[in-house]
Amino acid sequence: MEVGRIVKVAGPLVVAEGMSGAKMYDVALVSEKKLLGEIIELKGDLASIQVYEETAGVGPGEPVFPTGAPLSVELGPGLIRSIYDGVERPLDVIASIAGEFITRGIHVPALDRKKKWHFKPTKKKGDRIESGDVIGEVQETELVIHKIMVPPGIRGELLEIKEGEYTVEEPVAVVKTPEGERKEIIMMQKWPVRKPRPYREKVLPVELMVTGQRVIDTFFPVTKGGTACVPGPFGSGKTVIQHQLAKWSDADIVVYIGCGERGNEMTDVLIEFPELKDPRSGLPLMERTVLIANTSNMPVAAREASVYTGITIAEYFRDMGYSVALMADSTSRWAEAMREISGRLEEMPGEEGYPAYLAARVATFYERAGRVKCLGSPEREGALTVIGAVSPPGGDLSDPVVQATLRVVKVFWSLEDKLAYRRHFPAINWLTSYSLYRDISKEWLEKNVAPDFFDLTNEAMRILEKEAELEEIVRLVGVENLSQEDQLLLEIARSIREDFLHQNAFHEVDTYSSLKKQYLMLQTILFFYKKLKELVSRGQTVAELKKLPTWERIARMKYSTEDKIEEVVKSIREEIENAVSVS
Amino acid sequence: MPSLSLNSKKFIEYQAVNDISGPLLLVEGVEDVKYAELVEIILPNGETRHGQVLQVEQDKALIQVFEGTTGIDTPKTKVRFLARGIELPLSVDMLGRVFDGLGRPIDGGPEIIAEERRDINGAPINPYSRDYPNEFIQTGISAIDGLNTLVRGQKLPIFSGSGLPHNKLAAQIARQAKVLGEQEEFAVVFGAMGITFEEAEFFINDFKKTGALERTVLFLNLADDPAIERIATPRVVLTTAEYLAFAKHYHVLVILTDMTNYCEALREISAARKEVPGRRGYPGYLYTDLATIYERAGRIKGKKGSITLIPILTMPEDDKTHPIPDLTGYITEGQIILSRGLHRKKIYPPIDVLPSLSRLKDKGIGEGKTREDHSDVFNQLFAAYARGKEAQELAVILGEAALSEMDKLYYKFADIFEERYVGQGEYEDRSIFQTLDLGWELLSMFPRSELKRIRDEYLDKYLPRFQKEES
Description:
The structure holds 2 protein chains of 2 kinds.
Chain A: E1 4-10, E2 13-17, E3 26-30, E4 35-43, E5 46-51, E6 63-70, E7 72-75, E8 83-84, H1 91-98, E9 117-121, E10 128-129, E11 134-139, E12 145-149, E13 156-161, E14 164-166, E15 171-176, E16 182-186, E17 189-192, E18 201-203, E19 208-209, H2 214-219, E20 222-223, E21 227-231, H3 238-248, E22 253-259, H4 263-272, E23 289-294, H5 300-319, E24 323-329, H6 331-344, H7 358-367, E25 370-373, E26 381-390, H8 400-406, E27 411-412, H9 417-421, E28 434-435, H10 438-448, H11 453-477, H12 484-501, H13 515-537, H14 542-545, H15 550-555, H16 565-582
Parallel strand pairs in A: 8-23, 21-26, 21-27, 22-23, 22-24, 24-26
Antiparallel strand pairs in A: 1-2, 1-6, 2-5, 3-4, 3-6, 4-5, 7-17, 9-11, 9-14, 10-13, 11-12, 13-15, 15-16, 18-25, 19-20, 25-26, 27-28
Helix pairs in contact in A: 5-6, 7-8, 11-12, 11-13, 12-13, 13-16
Chain B: E1 13-14, E2 17-21, E3 24-27, E4 38-42, E5 48-57, E6 60-65, E7 78-81, E8 87-90, E9 98-100, E10 116-119, E11 130-131, E12 136-138, H1 142-145, E13 150-151, E14 158-160, H2 166-176, E15 178-179, E16 186-195, H3 197-209, E17 216-222, H4 233-247, E18 251-257, H5 259-272, H6 286-294, E19 298-300, E20 306-314, H7 323-331, E21 334-337, H8 340-344, E22 357-358, H9 361-364, H10 374-398, H11 405-422, H12 432-443, H13 456-470
Parallel strand pairs in B: 9-17, 14-20, 14-21, 16-17, 16-18, 18-20
Antiparallel strand pairs in B: 1-7, 2-3, 3-6, 4-5, 4-7, 5-6, 8-10, 11-19, 12-13, 12-15, 19-20, 21-22
Helix pairs in contact in B: 6-7, 10-11, 10-12, 11-12
């Protein structure tokens, strides 16, 4: 392909001439330094290239080398436990080559070329195979069996397939295509990041993703294959929620994208995840995690690419039949990167300077989530859950990125700084948040936890809503002027807020609650309420009832470990029964 | 400017300045110019100024001039491209010295003999190579140590407003900051952008008086210095800090004041380039630009030194949602907010603890770092103060009599808390243990059942000590 010539450099945007023949979104290498870039506009033989590395020192006259291929990621064994930048360069390898600071023009493959993996076939010689068929397995980490699938576009009869140790580039099988060609299958696939990976069909998500976070699982659940967004001003705890979900949600694979956020947060993940144990398997959480880190000081164009890199990797694991959870923190930085590039292209801006295609891009991104029937055999279903944080300026929800996101996602966790100031964490406002998966969760909870769980959540929500109404009245007339019933309701609402919804992510026990524990806690609070109501109707005052020691025991329920909770709850119930029978 | 230029004779000079607008020059007919290259501009009167290439298209280069464009003409001014970025000469001899905003000595002392030269733009730290900040820094200020704990390698801004004592607070932190039980090389790198002569004098005098100057490097861009020079100042400051921290093993505390002036300079350039403006006229890339400054703080695996960054910014009209504090808050690991209300009540430092936050505190406190009970005491104090403030708000509407007995107690607590816990002397250096004990002392006015956020074991261990004192 022809070599182009640079005519203009403005920050991350480079314009080159002599680029006829290049295609949109093809990768080009800029200048002799071979900086990685992507063609984002073509005019005649002029190509605008967004460059994923710092462009200082690059000037007109220098060459541009088109590669003729779109920006792609490498997929295969070795992804898990990796930490990549926005264009899938392994940061640990870069550190070993270039030291602590990221320098330019480093080209390293995403997957280790030398490492041998033990490949175990699941098909045998003579089998007919199609694209997407699982032909073998690799135990990638203790937690993850990496399924080796036939890459798209290949079908035919297996001529050879053998168990053994292979690198990602060595052929593990040979296929005779219907045209009579011999094709070798290697474990590594390449896939362009901006193109969703194919599947047989999409199906509705029916299973709850258990996150261990009480306010989420009980009130605003997300499903496996669902979409959720967490908008909130800074300091309201977006990142902590994202980390909590990455740690405790019951997905098989977690892809965490740190998109334009703090470097130290990624370090936190890197240090903490290998130490944390998965509550189900007892193995380190890092064994199922892929990290993409394009922090705010890394090149802005690579930030734009990072969400696509992440979701393509996530789709690849979904295709194996896994339930994958993807966290993107924060999609606002992605949108801002789009805005910056759009500004440099001198496009006509839409709202707040964002490009007019912002909403379309956001929608396409979230639409890559879902539960699907995968291609090929064996029959399997995979799910990709996408949870995006949004950082609107000043916490203003009219921000175009928030609005574009809310139009497509099904769950909205509204973070409020007012709650955060009161150190009510997670600072999810229970009145304004919503989940459109409540119906699915009803069935699921009734079947998998307890038949009355869903009704309890409704009752608790009614109490909280009533509290909000009563608070208006209290503001006008004071607490003393409320009826005893209403005063009791306020106390119970407070208990639901402080003892149930409030959850300390940094407390070793409280950080994760199983659904059973959530159910028992809520059930106990509401049982207490029922009994207290009886006492109030018999003439006791709330002030007297506040003296019961049970309040404090309920407040401490959340610190009970999973194996003790049943015992604790039982003894609290007995105490309540006693209190009622005595008076 | 000897400190920035090398032998520049060999470079081609162009006498082809075409347009001048604001701080920008457009030069035509140039060859082989690179993006972000350093430029020398020779004025008709022989004066030399410096600039940087902002954009280059064919044979046209757009240059931002750091010292301003006053006196530059189109026919006679010459431009020379230096084929490198802006570099700063570095040496440990910089400690104790005062420089201008571009790194030239202004204290009458000799030039710095460079041990090393570095591009002021630096390079991003590889997130993989970062080490997590988790070492507690004691500032001796209760509202910070107890509630918004600062740790080594953190970036924690102070959001202030005009007329508030942020400079006093910054000086106090610079003076008192230490790490428990360790004697290590500690340095302060101080960068002033567009502050007044009086403010600059305050810092210099305070550092001199307390002997802090000899471990301090000062970079001063004053209010009457060219605004455009401010674009380089924080980068010069952080390049010095990186050198001291990662090449010379110092623990460096960087103070940048006032970031609002920096952002305004950035806006000026953006406007001169006729870019599509974002919110309030600030460029759309303000976030990215600020991140390239703030993210240079941190620790690196295997390196002894660290950079802790305290940027100070004045919020226009005390508005936290203004783009500058807003974007800063999204990048930094928390914020310390000063309150005009507390300042009016004569409480120093007027730190509004409710909206203030240190995101890294959880890693820097607890057993082995401060004390086992720190986290619980923090949560309880915070919750109690928040409830007290709510009660006070309610009392404004309904009158104090309408409050329940418990709310009255919280009401009282909030006042005492502000006065005794938040408030302290400008030269009062409280140890973390004094701060924690003070917290217990204040909390002991509540019945034990109210202290829900503290674990039983700590209540048993600490509370009796302070309750006895009362009875």
